[in-house]
Amino acid sequence: MTASAPKPKATRKAKAAPAAAAVAEAVAPVTPQPVAQPVPAVQPKAQRRSRGISLAPKAEARACRAGTKQALMVDLLSRSCGASMSELLRHLHPWKPVTVKSGLSWDMNHQKGYGIRTTHENGYQRWLACDYEGQGTFHADHHPDDVSEADKAKLLADNLANGYNPGEVFAVYHLVLPAGMAAPVPHSGGAA
Predict the structure, then answer these.
(1) How far is CA 10 from CA 5, 7, 13, 169, in A?
(2) How many CB atoms lie under 10 A from the CB of residue 112?
(3) Which residue of 13, 20, 113, 154 is surrounded by the most CB atoms within 10 Å?
(4) DSSP E strands: which ranges in the chain?
Protein backbone atom coordinates (compact mmCIF):
# COMPACT_ATOMS: atom_id res chain seq x y z
CA MET A 1 0.00 0.00 0.00
CA THR A 2 1.22 3.35 -0.84
CA ALA A 3 0.50 6.36 1.25
CA SER A 4 -0.95 9.22 -0.63
CA ALA A 5 0.43 12.66 -0.05
CA PRO A 6 -1.84 15.25 1.53
CA LYS A 7 -3.59 17.47 -0.94
CA PRO A 8 -2.43 21.06 -0.96
CA LYS A 9 -5.00 23.57 0.29
CA ALA A 10 -6.57 25.80 -2.26
CA THR A 11 -5.65 29.43 -1.92
CA ARG A 12 -8.46 31.80 -1.17
CA LYS A 13 -9.26 34.71 -3.35
CA ALA A 14 -9.30 38.14 -1.73
CA LYS A 15 -12.75 39.50 -1.03
CA ALA A 16 -13.79 42.24 -3.35
CA ALA A 17 -17.03 42.97 -1.55
CA PRO A 18 -15.97 46.11 0.33
CA ALA A 19 -14.65 47.75 -2.80
CA ALA A 20 -17.72 46.74 -4.79
CA ALA A 21 -20.00 48.09 -2.06
CA ALA A 22 -18.17 51.43 -2.06
CA VAL A 23 -18.56 51.69 -5.85
CA ALA A 24 -22.26 50.74 -5.67
CA GLU A 25 -22.81 53.30 -2.92
CA ALA A 26 -21.13 56.04 -4.93
CA VAL A 27 -23.22 55.27 -8.03
CA ALA A 28 -26.57 54.82 -6.26
CA PRO A 29 -28.88 57.82 -6.26
CA VAL A 30 -29.03 59.66 -2.94
CA THR A 31 -32.39 59.31 -1.23
CA PRO A 32 -33.27 61.84 1.42
CA GLN A 33 -33.40 60.38 4.91
CA PRO A 34 -36.47 61.22 6.97
CA VAL A 35 -35.81 63.85 9.58
CA ALA A 36 -36.18 62.42 13.06
CA GLN A 37 -39.11 64.00 14.85
CA PRO A 38 -38.57 64.89 18.49
CA VAL A 39 -40.09 62.29 20.76
CA PRO A 40 -42.72 63.88 23.00
CA ALA A 41 -41.96 63.64 26.70
CA VAL A 42 -43.88 60.86 28.35
CA GLN A 43 -46.53 62.38 30.55
CA PRO A 44 -47.11 60.58 33.83
CA LYS A 45 -50.53 59.02 34.07
CA ALA A 46 -52.94 60.87 36.26
CA GLN A 47 -53.44 58.98 39.48
CA ARG A 48 -56.75 57.23 39.16
CA ARG A 49 -58.91 57.74 42.17
CA SER A 50 -60.49 54.60 43.48
CA ARG A 51 -64.26 54.61 43.40
CA GLY A 52 -64.13 53.04 46.85
CA ILE A 53 -66.55 50.62 48.38
CA SER A 54 -70.28 51.21 48.20
CA LEU A 55 -72.26 48.35 49.71
CA ALA A 56 -75.88 48.59 50.81
CA PRO A 57 -76.77 47.25 54.24
CA LYS A 58 -78.71 44.01 54.64
CA ALA A 59 -82.19 43.89 56.20
CA GLU A 60 -80.76 43.42 59.70
CA ALA A 61 -77.38 43.57 61.39
CA ARG A 62 -75.86 40.99 63.73
CA ALA A 63 -73.74 41.58 66.81
CA CYS A 64 -69.99 41.05 66.91
CA ARG A 65 -68.19 39.35 69.80
CA ALA A 66 -66.59 41.98 72.04
CA GLY A 67 -62.82 42.21 71.69
CA THR A 68 -62.64 40.84 68.14
CA LYS A 69 -61.30 42.62 65.09
CA GLN A 70 -64.85 42.73 63.69
CA ALA A 71 -65.99 44.60 66.81
CA LEU A 72 -63.06 46.99 66.47
CA MET A 73 -63.95 47.62 62.82
CA VAL A 74 -67.57 48.40 63.76
CA ASP A 75 -66.35 50.87 66.42
CA LEU A 76 -63.93 52.63 64.03
CA LEU A 77 -66.30 52.79 61.08
CA SER A 78 -69.32 53.96 63.08
CA ARG A 79 -67.60 57.20 64.18
CA SER A 80 -69.04 60.30 62.50
CA CYS A 81 -65.72 60.83 60.69
CA GLY A 82 -65.33 57.17 59.67
CA ALA A 83 -61.89 55.57 59.40
CA SER A 84 -59.11 55.94 56.84
CA MET A 85 -57.11 52.96 55.61
CA SER A 86 -54.07 54.02 57.68
CA GLU A 87 -56.20 54.10 60.84
CA LEU A 88 -57.66 50.68 60.09
CA LEU A 89 -54.20 49.26 59.40
CA ARG A 90 -52.84 50.68 62.68
CA HIS A 91 -55.69 49.30 64.79
CA LEU A 92 -56.01 45.96 62.96
CA HIS A 93 -52.29 45.14 62.90
CA PRO A 94 -50.93 42.83 61.37
CA TRP A 95 -53.61 42.99 58.68
CA LYS A 96 -52.57 44.19 55.22
CA PRO A 97 -54.68 46.55 53.03
CA VAL A 98 -56.12 43.63 51.07
CA THR A 99 -57.21 41.97 54.33
CA VAL A 100 -58.83 45.19 55.56
CA LYS A 101 -60.76 45.56 52.28
CA SER A 102 -61.86 41.95 52.58
CA GLY A 103 -62.96 42.65 56.14
CA LEU A 104 -64.98 45.64 54.96
CA SER A 105 -66.79 43.77 52.22
CA TRP A 106 -67.02 40.24 53.64
CA ASP A 107 -67.08 40.62 57.43
CA MET A 108 -68.94 43.90 57.77
CA ASN A 109 -71.35 43.51 54.85
CA HIS A 110 -71.85 39.82 54.18
CA GLN A 111 -71.53 38.41 57.71
CA LYS A 112 -72.70 41.27 59.94
CA GLY A 113 -75.17 43.01 57.61
CA TYR A 114 -73.79 46.56 57.70
CA GLY A 115 -73.29 48.68 54.60
CA ILE A 116 -70.04 50.44 53.72
CA ARG A 117 -69.76 53.87 52.09
CA THR A 118 -66.53 55.52 50.92
CA THR A 119 -65.82 59.24 50.83
CA HIS A 120 -62.66 60.91 49.56
CA GLU A 121 -61.04 63.59 51.70
CA ASN A 122 -57.84 65.58 51.63
CA GLY A 123 -55.63 66.05 54.69
CA TYR A 124 -57.11 69.36 55.80
CA GLN A 125 -60.69 68.06 55.55
CA ARG A 126 -59.66 64.97 57.49
CA TRP A 127 -58.02 67.05 60.22
CA LEU A 128 -61.12 69.24 60.55
CA ALA A 129 -63.37 66.16 60.69
CA CYS A 130 -61.68 64.25 63.48
CA ASP A 131 -57.96 64.88 63.89
CA TYR A 132 -57.08 61.27 63.30
CA GLU A 133 -54.22 59.61 61.50
CA GLY A 134 -54.14 59.61 57.72
CA GLN A 135 -53.84 63.30 56.96
CA GLY A 136 -51.38 62.77 54.10
CA THR A 137 -49.07 65.74 53.61
CA PHE A 138 -51.06 67.99 55.99
CA HIS A 139 -49.51 68.35 59.46
CA ALA A 140 -51.01 69.78 62.65
CA ASP A 141 -49.98 69.64 66.29
CA HIS A 142 -53.33 70.47 67.90
CA HIS A 143 -56.86 69.14 67.78
CA PRO A 144 -59.02 71.30 65.44
CA ASP A 145 -61.41 72.16 68.29
CA ASP A 146 -58.49 73.78 70.18
CA VAL A 147 -57.59 76.11 67.29
CA SER A 148 -59.33 79.39 66.36
CA GLU A 149 -60.56 80.07 62.82
CA ALA A 150 -57.69 82.55 62.26
CA ASP A 151 -55.17 79.95 63.44
CA LYS A 152 -56.77 77.32 61.17
CA ALA A 153 -56.34 79.65 58.18
CA LYS A 154 -52.71 80.37 59.15
CA LEU A 155 -52.04 76.64 59.64
CA LEU A 156 -53.48 75.88 56.20
CA ALA A 157 -51.35 78.64 54.60
CA ASP A 158 -48.21 77.35 56.37
CA ASN A 159 -48.90 73.79 55.22
CA LEU A 160 -49.45 74.96 51.63
CA ALA A 161 -46.11 76.80 51.76
CA ASN A 162 -44.40 73.66 53.13
CA GLY A 163 -45.58 71.23 50.46
CA TYR A 164 -49.11 70.27 51.49
CA ASN A 165 -50.93 68.97 48.44
CA PRO A 166 -54.70 69.58 48.74
CA GLY A 167 -55.19 67.44 45.61
CA GLU A 168 -53.95 64.38 47.51
CA VAL A 169 -57.13 62.58 48.50
CA PHE A 170 -57.62 59.26 50.19
CA ALA A 171 -60.50 56.95 50.95
CA VAL A 172 -62.39 57.18 54.22
CA TYR A 173 -64.78 54.35 55.05
CA HIS A 174 -68.09 54.77 56.91
CA LEU A 175 -70.53 52.24 58.37
CA VAL A 176 -74.06 52.34 56.92
CA LEU A 177 -76.72 51.00 59.26
CA PRO A 178 -79.73 48.98 58.13
CA ALA A 179 -83.06 50.84 57.92
CA GLY A 180 -84.55 51.69 61.30
CA MET A 181 -81.30 51.45 63.27
CA ALA A 182 -79.87 54.47 65.08
CA ALA A 183 -76.64 52.80 66.30
CA PRO A 184 -74.70 49.59 65.61
CA VAL A 185 -75.79 46.42 67.39
CA PRO A 186 -74.01 46.24 70.79
CA HIS A 187 -71.17 43.71 70.98
CA SER A 188 -71.95 40.43 72.69
CA GLY A 189 -69.91 38.33 75.14
CA GLY A 190 -66.12 38.28 74.91
CA ALA A 191 -63.51 36.95 72.52
CA ALA A 192 -63.30 33.17 72.68
Answers:
(1) 15, 9, 9, 81
(2) 22
(3) 113
(4) 54-55, 83-84, 115-122, 169-176
Beta carbons within 10 angstroms of residue 158's beta carbon? 12
pLDDT digits (tens, 9 = 90+) for 9-19: 666 665 555 55
pLDDT tens, position by position, 134-189 = 578 888 888 888 889 999 999 999 999 999 999 988 889 999 999 999 999 999 98
What's at 102, amino acid-wise? S
| Rg of the chain, C-alpha, whole Å | 35
Contact 55, 116 (CB under 8 A): yes
Question: Which residue in 50, 144, 56 sits closest to 97, CA to CA?
Answer: 50
In three state form, how does the secondary structure of 102-138 look?
A: HHHHHHHHHHCCCEEEEEEEEHHHHHHHHCCCCCCCC
Nearest CA to 95 out of 107, 106, 105, 103 is that of 103
Residues near 118 by beta carbon (within 8 Å), at least 6 away in sequence: 50, 51, 52, 53, 54, 171, 172, 173, 174
Going by the DSSP 8-state scheme, the letter that residue 2 receives in this structure is: -
| Residues present in the chain in total | 192
Ranges of each domain in the chain? 54-176
